[in-house]
Amino acid sequence: MSDSEQRQLHVPYREYHSQNNSSPATTAAAATAAAAAAAAAATALVETDALVDLSIAPINSSSSSHHQRLSLHNDQPPSPADLLPDVEFIPSLSNDQTLAIDSSGIDRESQPLLGRLELDVTFNRFPDDPQFSELVWQAECAIDNGVYPERIYQGSSGSYFVKNPAGKIIGVFKPKDEEPYGRLNPKWTKWMHKLCCPCCFGRSCLIPNQGYLSEAGASLVDRKLSLGIVPNTRVVKLVSEVFNYPRLDRQKARMKQAIMDQFPTVGSHFNRIGLPPKVGSFQVFVDGYKDADYWLRRWESESMPAHLSREFQLQFERLVILDYIIRNTDRGNDNWLIKYDTSVSKNGIEQGEVKIAAIDNGLAFPFKHPDSWRAYPYHWAWLTQAKQPFSEVTRELVLPQLSDQNFVQDLCDDLYQLFKQDKGFDRHHFDRQMSVMRGQILNLQQALKDAKSPVQLVQMPAVIVEKAKGNGTPRLFSFSDTFTQRFQNKSPFFSWC
Ligand SMILES: Nc1ncnc2c1ncn2[C@@H]1O[C@H](COP(=O)(O)OP(=O)(O)OP(=O)(O)O)[C@@H](O)[C@H]1O
Ligand SMILES: [Mg+2]
């Protein structure tokens, strides 16, 4: 989808905010006048079945015969007519596009008016992953039917448990603008942190407010290496009144609703009535898991059956591989989960299972190795499992891929496709992120070849692998690229491993 198409679908909040500075009272008083004017426009509207967007358009956008724009001037109080929302016609879908939206067994005809643009729905469809598409669809249906997401209170960001229409939790949604230091983070502790301790605000090695991409990126790395420990995570857009929205967005949504209630004929042509969708990461919720800390403490006093202990070791090694490649800066024992079940079958054979889920991957993919006052160590490095050399099974699983430059290049390309969708994407920073990741892969590859242990791995000097200067091709990476390797010479003030 091109940029211009995207602008038609979703008017960013910033544009709305910068021009629509009317007070709530004025807005409410103007609603009726706006509704009347909208009714006048209805005569023209009923003649067409084109989709209609009620977004307020930027002042300087060019007008066309199809567009009726707002003309708000900052130096004059807005007249009621000024508050009439912009009516924008979006061309009808081609047959192909309609099929794409409707094809995944989704009966959109019977759905109520959704709080999002019709075309936006394609954003949440993943042709390569119908199961995930279906799950997000369930979440959307639930929200449309009043089964709202629930904020996770223990976290530092605005994260939400998302439910299906039956009220079962199926996912964890983390909107970009509610991340720990995001514009709309609802947690007062983070607000205080920003206010009272600005010097320690955020992590200097990470690109701020791209945690949702890091979450989805971790899942991508997991999928490509078949690690199977990160619950499937992708970037989606969701809208719900329980999310944290600026007051102006809520007022705008209420005004549209008032028009809808009083003039249903006009309202029925409005495609988006509600609040604007939020972009964020959506992670599949895994059932039956507990914080790793819980089981690690239990295992200090209770022993694990040998076969489960072996299985846990293999799972643990996959966690190490993931964290090391993405250079996770936030892997405390509360940020991974363990499912542990020791069932014994009727004939007395010990069965059971142990599985790891690597959640909360939002603080990874740094653009430089940590070099300021904190080292952000991997907390698993203190566990006894970290002292054992990597197993043959793990080495066979990942070493062939990590040693293949085409695979690494492919991984960088896929991450590029993912990361570039952020509005603040910066190619230079992305290249640096990839240089760190390539350095990590180089170390990991060597450690696996030498059958080192995770503890030995984290003690290896930090490496950066950069594309050699002077052979910059327009493509992100090309097969003819040469890379140079250098060691990071600056170390964090505190370093434990
Ligand atoms: N995919 C998941 N499946 C099951 N439970 C999950 C999942 N993701 C998160 N949780 C639960 O929600 C809690 C908070 O999740 P998470 O740590 O990802 O949120 P957060 O808001 O980023 O918190 P913080 O940044 O403070 O660590 C976890 O401790 C875990 O209990
Ligand atoms: Mg957490």
UniProtKB/TrEMBL annotation:
It is found in: Cell membrane; Membrane. This is Phosphatidylinositol 4-kinase type 2. Its EC number is 2.7.1.67. Residues 1-30, 63-85 are annotated as: Disordered. GO terms for cellular component: endosome; lysosomal membrane; plasma membrane; trans-Golgi network. One of its GO terms (biological process) is Golgi organization. GO terms for molecular function: 1-phosphatidylinositol 4-kinase activity; ATP binding. Residues 146-467 form the PI3K/PI4K catalytic domain. Keywords: ATP-binding, Cell membrane, Kinase, Membrane, Nucleotide-binding, Transferase. It comes from Atta cephalotes. The lineage of its organism: Eukaryota, Metazoa, Ecdysozoa, Arthropoda, Hexapoda. It comes from the Eukaryota. The keyword Cell membrane applies. The gene is 105624338. PANTHER family: PHOSPHATIDYLINOSITOL 4-KINASE TYPE 2, PHOSPHATIDYLINOSITOL 4-KINASE TYPE-II. Its main location: membrane. Belongs to the PI3/PI4-kinase family. Type II PI4K subfamily. It catalyses: a 1,2-diacyl-sn-glycero-3-phospho-(1D-myo-inositol) + ATP = a 1,2-diacyl-sn-glycero-3-phospho-(1D-myo-inositol 4-phosphate) + ADP + H(+). It is a peripheral membrane protein. It is an enzyme of class 2 (transferase). Residues 1-17 have a biased composition (Basic and acidic residues).
